[in-house]
Amino acid sequence: MAEAVLTVGLSYLEPPLIRHGYTGKVLSELLNIRVSEVNSFLHAQLPPGRTQDLRDQMLKIGIILYASEGN
To answer: Could you say which of 5, 16, 40, 64 would form a disulfide bridge with 45 (CB–CB 3.0 to 4.6 Å)?
Structure first.
């Protein structure tokens, strides 16, 4: 169930993050990961545990994760 919620929600993360200046390159530098892993995260292509880990890291450094407008 949590995986389904995360998968749906992630597809809506990219546009607001980019509007606030958090491009893939910026996120990769802040999280100390590769840009390709950021892209995989934003397109819900990571294992659920890794997805949650990255979400937690983003929240910890102060990046606001917006809920989808449809929810």
So the answer is: 40
